[in-house]
Design brief:
By secondary structure, the chain is of the alpha+beta class. The protein is 26% helix and 25% strand. The longest helix is centred in the middle third of the chain and has 14 residues.
């Protein structure tokens, strides 16, 4: 049984995930906790579940997905890992937070860079890193093939897709990432996105109004 726990944090309603390795250790994805209350909620959950985070993985580095990175590093001593093409986004996150008027601690130094098609062990589970740019230059998703789930960040949502109006976004890259990477996965794979509830690959292939397998979506290949 998949032991993936979801939390909704910060003013952007970002989804932070915690993957239980089954041996007392866990992986944090996209730490978005931004207030003391949110930090306490996450810490208390870990304590109650007897889990110790040992790695921190980022789908991408937009400010809402990294607001808790400094606190995670301070509490557990783990540096966030991200794709190198999103390092500039990571470095600019505090400036972006200031633009939105959102307080944010200085970010810690990143750990080892993520590589496309890298395999990451999480106890008995194994995550495959897939490069899915478009919403952010270095966006990746994490796929667990045995348990049939995807930690998808801001690429594909239930009936929607990630924004393409931010610095570093590319509509055509996003369409390609969805059509060529995510839609190539089995239809029963569950996608846990960076905002909102989960959906399944098959559902979005059939009915997503922006990008779908029939090619009738509002966004098409070559859109710029």
């Amino acid at each position: 049984m998949t032991k993936l726990h979801a939390f909704t944090f910060n003013v952007f309603g970002e989804r932070t995930y915690l993957l239980d390795h089954g041996d007392g250790e866990a992986t944090v994805f996209d730490p978005g906790m931004s207030t003391k209350l949110e930090q306490e909620e996450f810490a208390k959950f870990c304590e109650k579940a007897c889990l110790r985070p040992v790695q921190c993985l980022l789908t991408h580095a937009h400010l809402d997905h990294v607001m808790g990175a400094a606190w995670v590093f301070e509490r557990w001593g783990i540096k966030p890992r991200l794709h190198p093409l999103d390092l500039l986004t990571y470095e600019q996150a505090p400036r972006a937070a200031a633009v939105y008027g959102v307080p944010m601690a200085d970010l810690p130094e990143c750990g080892e860079a993520l590589a496309s098609e890298e395999r990451i062990r999480c106890g008995d589970l194994e995550l495959e890193v897939l490069f899915t740019p478009g919403h952010a230059p270095g966006h990746v998703v994490f796929v667990e093939h045995q348990q049939a789930f995807v930690i998808g960040g801001d690429v594909l949502f239930e009936g929607s897709i990630g924004r393409t109006d931010l610095p570093g976004c590319s509509p055509s890259d996003l369409v390609d990432s969805i059509a060529d990477i995510l839609f190539a996965l089995p239809e029963d794979f569950e996608v846990w996105p960076g905002h909102g509830g989960p959906t399944k690959i098959g559902i979005e292939k059939r009915s997503n109004p922006f990008v779908n397998a029939a090619g009738t979506g509002m966004m098409q290949r070559g859109d710029a």
